[in-house]
């Protein structure tokens, strides 16, 4: 469950098989962790402790020099405990009187000034000095995010820092210039802590603030960037990061209980009992999906399973990567292999999120679908009598899974596994025709054919894009249509489109090979949104105005017509709403945010986790695919790009600042984020995906989808450049 409410978190924890007295203090920790990470399955590693060092006051003699030396050499208690808890330790000097040490994995010198002013006689730091230290802290959060850190603990060094923190915590009144107000009584370490907390929260990291300086930094961060506190977990204070390190085992325990504890069995009255749905979950690489995989699914349905969930696995962190097709191709192949089997759901979640969900966790994740059965091959249970099966040794919590989970064990006819090797709850299913996917890949690599071990549609896709051959996968390919069958989508309010569809009606089929779209670009975008999971090529026929995504003409028979297929990515768009909820969608052309009031929008642009433009003032910002570069992006001054270009276009609408703003092309691998800088409701923004409004938003994160892809077909005479010129320079009326 994504972004659960407080009540949903508590209900989930209450349903765990825990002692009658509950989890005690651990329950509170588990609640905080779930709330901070927005999930019921939080993680606590990789993790890092950042300690900021600064002296306070005008005294030119450092009071923290010895502590820095002990920390960086590994001799201090904090360094020893960090190693014992598997926590990376980094010391950052942001304001000591010490000479800087040589840069090392444990030490960085990012000094903004030495010491501070006398807070009793004047400001300890100027607003600019406070802001510089704040930026140093933001940089540390960005480095942690880039390194894959999930939990970021932070504190300051020295007893003086605690006294400064108390002065900062005593300030509660809002201020027009928070940097100047907090700088007057604070220090460089507290400023850096505030920057780290604010940026880490924005990047989605969980922040552990256990000392007084860290809590002061969180206090400042919340006033500079409201909403930051939601991702901060506060702990008991001990100096020099010890409090944070002592809190980590409790976080680990909470995460382990949430991930691995079975749910409590609740006896329900018989009168309210509903028939239990039997659901089989079939996981694997499906690289490629074979006729054997399909036969397994069909037999499961025949044996009384109400639903079969096919889940291509994401990358594992506990072994070498063995897949040979990119996730988007595996997603397409799996959809093609199973799309016409009733009662089958293809779940692409792991591929889309580039993660591997342990088998043991699937019961909680999919338990609301019914009684879950794990489909495994017979070799997974071999050695079960001696607790030496693959389930025991390779699955997370394998011993518990063996004893409590339900299994469907696949085996060749006449070769059932030994009864003593079977788990307590299992069902045998005899299936013939198994062939290793590695053998199919090798056969294709050696210029052979994947048939008859894959379906016709799977084989056609493999050949079309040279999968498993070692050749570069093309962005475009030419085909000749043979026996085309159509799904026709026409703009229902356009008489011109409906008339244009008539010559093709004889090719309509309930089992189509192509999708014919008649209308304008808006009709094509809607058709792609509605039917992309059919994994069929789209052919457009212009019955609108310009129709950049449409052919001008197509022969009514379509037989043997040459078509150029462009393989075009879709974008995954994750938007955060003002109430903190997140919505996810796909865009084929573009996604943008724009001002939702008479005031200009103030926006920040991040690319790949790094802030590239701290503030944009204007009407809005947009990211477009090559297919969308000729639409709204062009109206914003961007240049249209070829359909096969591996780029995204970043454009702005009526940008006032920064001056001389120009649209830019980014690699399609870029992750782009737009975040509002409006914290008082004066400058709200709203979001759009392919022209469809999603309402007010706080931020929008855009990246290429790892599972969604569209094939768009054009006749060879298609010329996008000519259409663009015609749109920019329309022919003049005759004299």
Explained architecture:
- With 735 residues, the chain is of the alpha/beta class.
- It has four domains: 45-247, 3-Layer(aba) Sandwich (Rossmann fold), CATH 3.40.50.10210; 275-430, HUPs (Rossmann fold, 3-Layer(aba) Sandwich), CATH 3.40.50.620; 480-556, Probable inorganic polyphosphate/atp-NAD kinase, domain 1 (Rossmann fold, 3-Layer(aba) Sandwich), CATH 3.40.50; 568-728, Tumour Suppressor Smad4 (Sandwich), CATH 2.60.200.
- It is built from 22 helices and 28 strands.
- α5 packs across α7 (178-185).
- It is globular, with a radius of gyration of 30 Å.
- The N and C termini lie far apart (66 Å).
Concise overview:
The chain contains 22 helices and 28 strands. The protein is globular. Helix 6 runs parallel beside helix 9.
Per DSSP E runs of 2 or more residues, the count of β-strands stands at: 28
Distance between the termini: 66 Å
Shape: globular
Mean pLDDT: 88
| Helix percentage range | 25-40%
Report the portion of residues in β strands: 15-25%
CATH architecture of the largest domain: 3-Layer(aba) Sandwich
Count of distinct structural domains? 4
CATH level 1 name of the largest domain:
Alpha Beta
Q: How many H/I helices?
A: 22
**Biggest sheet: strands, sense, closure?**
10 strands, mixed
Structural class computed from helices and strand pairing: alpha/beta
**CATH topology assignment of the largest domain:** Rossmann fold
CATH homologous superfamily of the largest domain, by name? Nicotinate-nucleotide-dimethylbenzimidazole phosphoribosyltransferase (CobT), large domain
Uncertain ranges = 267-273
């Amino acid at each position: 469950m994504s972004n659960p409410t407080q009540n949903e978190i508590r209900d989930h924890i209450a349903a765990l098989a825990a002692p009658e007295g509950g989890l005690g203090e651990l329950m509170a920790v588990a609640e905080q962790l779930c709330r901070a990470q927005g999930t019921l399955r939080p993680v606590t590693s990789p993790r890092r402790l950042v300690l900021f060092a600064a002296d306070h006051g005008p005294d030119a003699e450092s009071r923290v020099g010895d502590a820095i030396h002990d920390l960086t050499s590994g001799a201090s208690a904090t360094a020893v405990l960090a190693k014992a808890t598997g926590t990376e330790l980094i010391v950052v000097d942001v304001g000591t009187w010490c000479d800087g040490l040589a840069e090392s994995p444990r030490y960085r010198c990012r000094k903004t000034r030495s010491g501070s002013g006398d807070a009793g006689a004047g400001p300890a730091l100027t607003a600019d000095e406070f802001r510089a230290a704040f930026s140093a802290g933001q940089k540390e959060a960005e480095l942690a995010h880039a390194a894959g850190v999930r939990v970021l603990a932070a504190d300051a060094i020295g007893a003086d820092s605690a006294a400064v923190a108390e002065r900062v915590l005593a300030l509660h009144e809002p201020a027009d210039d928070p940097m100047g107000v907090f700088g007057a009584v604070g220090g460089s370490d507290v400023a850096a802590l505030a920057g780290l907390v604010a940026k880490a929260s924005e990047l989605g990291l969980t922040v552990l603030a256990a000392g007084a300086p860290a809590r002061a930094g969180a206090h400042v961060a919340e006033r500079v960037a409201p909403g930051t506190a939601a991702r901060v977990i506060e702990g008991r204070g001990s100096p020099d990061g010890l409090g944070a390190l002592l809190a980590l085992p409790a976080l680990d325990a909470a995460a382990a209980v949430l991930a691995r504890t079975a749910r409590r069995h609740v006896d329900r009255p018989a009168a309210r009992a509903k028939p239990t749905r039997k659901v089989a979950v079939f996981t694997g690489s499906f690289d490629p999906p074979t006729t054997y995989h399909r036969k397994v699914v069909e037999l499961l349905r025949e044996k009384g399973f109400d639903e079969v969930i096919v889940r291509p696995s994401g990358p594992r962190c506990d072994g070498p990567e063995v897949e040979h097709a990119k996730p988007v191709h595996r997603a397409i192949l799996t959809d093609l292999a199973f799309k016409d089997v009733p009662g089958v759901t293809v779940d692409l979640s792991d591929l889309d999120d580039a993660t591997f969900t342990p088998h043991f966790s699937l019961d909680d994740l999919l338990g609301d679908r019914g009684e879950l059965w794990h489909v495994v091959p017979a070799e997974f249970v071999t050695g079960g009598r001696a607790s030496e099966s693959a389930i025991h040794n390779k699955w997370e919590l394998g011993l518990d899974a063996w004893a409590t989970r339900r299994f469907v064990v696949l085996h060749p006819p006449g070769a059932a596994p030994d009864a003593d090797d079977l788990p307590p709850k299992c069902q045998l299913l005899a299936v013939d025709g198994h062939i290793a996917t590695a053998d199919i890949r090798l056969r294709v690599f050696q210029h052979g054919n994947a048939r008859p071990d894959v379906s016709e549609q799977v084989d056609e896709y493999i050949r079309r894009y040279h999968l498993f051959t070692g050749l570069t996968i093309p962005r475009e390919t030419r085909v000749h249509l043979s026996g085309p069958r159509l799904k026709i989508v026409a703009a229902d309010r356009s008489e011109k489109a409906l008339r244009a569809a008539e010559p093709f009606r004889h090719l309509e089929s309930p089992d189509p090979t192509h999708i014919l779209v008649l209308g304008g670009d808006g009709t094509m975008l809607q058709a792609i949104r509605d039917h992309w999971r059919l994994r069929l090529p789209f052919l457009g026929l212009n019955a609108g105005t310009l129709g950049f995504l449409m052919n001008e003409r197509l022969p009514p028979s379509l037989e043997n017509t040459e078509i150029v297929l462009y393989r075009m990515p879709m974008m995954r768009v994750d938007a955060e709403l003002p109430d903190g909820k997140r919505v996810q969608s796909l865009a084929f052309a573009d996604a943008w945010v724009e001002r939702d009031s008479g005031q200009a929008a103030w926006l920040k642009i991040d690319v790949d986790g790094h802030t590239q433009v701290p503030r944009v003032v204007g009407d809005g910002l947009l990211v477009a695919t090559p297919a969308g570069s000729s639409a709204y992006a062009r109206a914003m001054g961007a240049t249209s790009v070829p359909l096969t270009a591996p780029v995204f276009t970043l454009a702005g609408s009526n940008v006032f600042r920064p001056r001389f703003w120009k649209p830019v092309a980014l690699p399609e691998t870029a992750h782009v984020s737009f975040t509002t800088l409006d914290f008082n409701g004066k400058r709200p923004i709203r979001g759009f995906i392919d022209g469809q409004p999603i309402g007010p938003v706080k931020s929008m994160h855009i990246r290429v989808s790892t599972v969604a892809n569209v094939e768009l077909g054009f006749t060879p005479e298609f010329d996008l450049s000519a259409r663009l010129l015609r749109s920019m320079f329309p022919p003049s009326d005759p004299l």
